[in-house]
Structure formats: C-alpha cells, structure tokens
Amino acid sequence: MQADGNHEQPKPTFISRAIGVLIKAAVLLMLLFIVDKLLPSISQQTQSFVMAKWQQLSLLQQPLPTENSLPNPLPKQHLTDTWGAARSQGRSHEGIDIFAERGTPIQATTQGIVSKVGENTLGGRVVVVIGPGGAGHYYAHLEDYADLSPNDWVNAGDTIGYVGDSGNAKGTPPHVHYGIYINGSAVNPYPLLQKE
C-alpha cells in the first residue's frame, strides 16, 4: 500500500485478458456477420431506389401524349367519348369507359412507373402509371390486378389488370375507366387514343 492512500489496482491475469479479447472478437464477428447479411439487401434497395428516380427523371423529360398517340388499353374494343357525362353527387365523368367482357386483360397505354396498385371508394381496384411528361394514367373498376407493385416499370402493351366492375361501378356492365391527369388535372383521354 502506498502512503498517499491510493490503492494499487491488481494486474489482470492472463485468463481474464484472454476472456476479454475473446468477447471483443465475438462481438466483432457478430457485427461483421450482420453487416454481411444486410449489405446485399441494403445495396439492392439503394440500387432500386436510384433506378426508380432515374426512370422518373427520364419520364419527366419526355413529351406528354398527343392526339392519337396512345394505343387503346383494350385493343379491338370500341371507344366512345364519355368525357364530361353526368355522374352521381353532381360530378362529371373525368375519363372514358371502355366496355369488354369481365376478365379481359387491360394493357398499359404507355411506358411508365406504377405509382399505385390498390383500392379507392369510386374506382374500386385501381392502377396508376406515371408516364412521359409526368402524366398519370388511371385505370379503374378492375376485377383483379396483374402481378404489379408500386415502383415497377411497365411498357406500353403490358397487362396491368383485368376488366371488372369494382368500386362505384358494382353491378354495371364490366368496363375499365381510363383517365389521364396532367399537372394534377383530368384531361379527356379520348382524343389522345388511337381509333381503329
């Protein structure tokens, strides 16, 4: 014992030092294992995010659809301009209805990024694709969806869903409600679609 009253700490033994090193090594190995397992998924998520943002920027640089530039989402089905027709609760129709047999595949009219696959009150089962110029392409009253998720890329002609009568169309003849939104406002899709 020293005269100033301080106690000398006992020196760690070889065994206690070895146990300390082994514990630190085990913790380090666990951390490396966790990072090794997570890194590929983090990297994949980062790549997917960057790719989606690049595609969105690329789409925004492309021109908006013009007259007769888009294919019919239901090829060989007759198109009628139902834009502006009266609807319940004083609304007017913000799209066109294209009738076909229940379950008929609905094709994307443009390339783009899927922004929604889900349901809403009026449209029932809906798919929204953001296409060139940032235009939103809205497909509603679907019977079912194709194998799609938000942020998926689609090309014109890809199946995005199937004709039905979901939402407020329940009990009406099966059809797809097709709408286009530019800068958040609905525009008449009829003039933009190619007529056969």
Automatic annotation (TrEMBL):
Domain M23ase beta-sheet core span(s) in chain numbering: 92-189
EC number in record: 3.4.24.-
Record bears the keyword Transmembrane helix: yes
InterPro entries cross-referenced by the UniProt entry: Cell_wall_metabolism_enzyme (IPR050570), Dup_hybrid_motif (IPR011055), M23ase_b-sheet_dom (IPR016047)
GO molecular function, one term: hydrolase activity
Keywords per UniProt: Hydrolase, Membrane, Transmembrane, Transmembrane helix
Pfam families per UniProt: Peptidase_M23
Keyword Calcium: no
SUPFAM superfamilies, alphabetized: Duplicated hybrid motif
TM helices/strands, residue ranges: 14-35
Xref: PANTHER family: PEPTIDASE M23 DOMAIN-CONTAINING PROTEIN, PEPTIDASE-RELATED
Protein's name in the database: M23 family metallopeptidase
